[in-house]
Amino acid sequence: MTPQHRPGTPAPPPTAAQGSAPAAGLPAPLAPEPAARWERPALLALLLVTAVLYLWSLSSSGYANQFYSAAVQAGSESWKAFFFGSSDAANSITVDKPPAALWPMALSVRLFGLSSWAILVPEALMGVAAVGVLHGAVRRRFGAGAGLLAGATLAVTPVAALMFRFNNPDALLCLLMVCAVACVLRALEHGRTKWLVLAGICFGLGFLTKTLQAWLILPPLAVVYACCAPVALRRRFGQLLLAGLALVVSGGWWVALVELWPAASRPYIGGSQGNSFLELTFGYNGFGRITGNETGSVGGGGRPGGGGGGWGETGITRLFSSDMGGQISWLLPAALILLVAAVAVLWRARRAVAAEQAAQRTEFLVWGGALLMTFTTFSFMSGIFHQYYNIALAPYVAALVGMGSALLWRRGGRLAAYVLAGTVAVTAGWSFVLLNRSPDWLPWLRWTVAALGLPAALGLLLSARRGAVAPKEAAAQEEAAAAAGAMAPDEVPAVDGAPVAGGAPLWAGRRLAVVAAGLGVVTALAGPVAYTLDTVNTAKGGSIVTAGPTVRGGMGGPGGGFPGGGMPGRKGGAQGGAPGGAPGGAPGAGQGQGAGQGQGRPPGGPQGTNPGQKQGQKQGRNQHGAQGRFPAPGAQGWPGGRGGFPGGMGRFGEGGGRMGGMGGLLNGAEVSDRAKALLEKDADDYTWAAAAIGSQTAASYQLATEKPVMAIGGFNGSDPSPTLARFKEYVADGKIHYFVEGGRRGPGGNGGDASKISAWVTKTFKKVTVGDATFYDLTSRKA
């Protein structure tokens, strides 16, 4: 019997002959280089599989969210539009977020030209990077197995696979938050200032990505560092102040320039009512998301007195509900169980192993604090909340699952076996519930998960009961072994690879335990993997997208998650449908009849076709519709649109391939060859080839023609940009050629600027009809 150092466990502290570790700082974590031959190939395989998963059929989604794709196209044409995040190259209005998430995509389009691949590949690479950073952060103290499990869990989380293949800001935000946590963990090892400053820079860049959401996890991380950093208390607070300064500088330079820039020479700040980025930050994109008081919002918000509203019921069970659960909650119960168990196990650290256990406990507090803060905020916020926001939770859940599983596995004994067995059983049961919400989709899978989960849980219990020592005895024997042999807390003598405490194996049934653990991992990941595969094989378009199949009882039709209930299918009749549109449009306050079927058509590109790929041929599907309601501002629903939701001629089912109940909402218009040719003719003689109400309609024509199209009223059609007087000036100066009929006029009804502009145009200028599209020639007045 000889002491052995197992790969994937913390290295033993130096003996007296080797010298002592530094007085300040936690025990040295695992070396950066792999400790075993299999580690590097395993990591490379994980990253390769993640890359293939995220790049697979990527272009089927076309331009994905055309709202952001149009801003990317504008930024690739104009450096001013690039800097401000303008919706068009002529800089009429910005998107309703800071521009950092647009910059990588705009640079890619500058290099490779406008295409779906050029826009979406940077997002996929961010996903691969996030998996790699998470693996490295977890591996440093918990071993290669924990790192690989954490990375794999993040990679196959459905909402992560969705957003790392999409062009919303959430992909970059997730990567920056993983990097920020990793930097804080490095700072906690020896109290080094540079790592804390780097974390501050990550938070600053996160602010330039999605404003205040990036700072959700700041409080728990700052508290943990202030309490646990291995340096003097005064130095800790000094370091936190320096990190705060780095945050302000890295995130505030752009804000300062925008606020100081003369308003007349920059684009209007989209999403604000007063042309102010600070108003946007603390209002519509800030505290309004918490309270539901969001002036200019698309709708929804909490009901008076709380309890949720148009964006779903709030409460502790919100993220487990029908429309949210399949996105993120597969391993959320497991993460919470393992967090509590790990902190309890490590809290009373014994003297011989106190330092290492304290370091591990600190890492659980960091990841756990980030999870709990984000979970609580998402559960109770009353403002705009979409399912894809849950990507923010994905790395925290994945880290806790990898760390907690590895810690309890190496510890062994009855307590660890009970916790792991219970975690597997709960995960299998919850997966069954989630899969049962889509009864017609892979019906065999839920029974397979249940069939694997039961023997996995029983195997873990049986492998520990046979001959295992009691937890107290094992702890005493482990402490004595560590003290006598100067070994790390998990380093105990080994016989044939089986850890021993006082001669009794901590996992008495080693082989049974390994088989049971393998079944447990398969059980836990089967549901997320299936959802993720469905996601990558389904085109996604529009502004509201969800992962996985249609769920029973979920909110929304083609986007899944539309506020207030389901939407009708493409062929569904609508009562109170879109004014000015054909039957089958999006319902407003009226009721819709649904279950439409339609051929999927990818959004974006000329004629609505998919750049670099032929039109999808898979059958569209939408299983929601009855009693569907959207909390529109008017009693009759959103104005505009032909046979579909707001956005010109946009229709459900468009997005390429199977758009189904989870494809996307708030998509753009379908641009025909004739309409494209009309707008392109003499377009260079005008500042804007056309103007349209709402960003989605404007984006469709801009992406089709690659000419600036003014988005009147911004994303929701509710921003006072431009005013009617200003628009008349543009027309008088010959800066706008056409006005696109329809579009989204947003809250404010007929009294808003967008409605006033539309009324003036239709009364004053000649109509030009091209196929299904209607334009007004702003250079030709009526007699």
Describe this entry's structure for a reader.
This protein has 24 helices and ten strands. The chain has 783 residues and is mainly alpha-helical. Among the domains are: 566-573 and 592-625 and 651-662, no CATH class; 673-781, no CATH class. It has a five-stranded mixed sheet with strand order 7-6-8-10-9, sandwiched between helices. The chain has a three-stranded antiparallel sheet with strand order 1-2-3. A two-stranded antiparallel ribbon has the order 4-5. Helix 15 packs antiparallel against helix 16. Mean pLDDT is 78; it is low at 1-25, 300-308, 466-474, 477-505, 556-664 and 745-750.
Helix content, binned percent: 40-55%
Query: Describe the biggest sheet?
Result: 5 strands, mixed
Continuous helix count: 24
Tell me what portion of residues adopts beta-strand conformation.
Answer: 5-15%
Rg of Cα set:
28 Å
How many β-strands, per DSSP? 10
Mean pLDDT: 78
- Which residues form runs of ≥5 with pLDDT under 50? 1-25, 300-308, 466-474, 477-505, 556-664, 745-750
Termini gap: 102 Å
Overall body shape: globular
Strands side by side in the biggest sheet: 7-6-8-10-9
Structural class by SSE content: mainly alpha
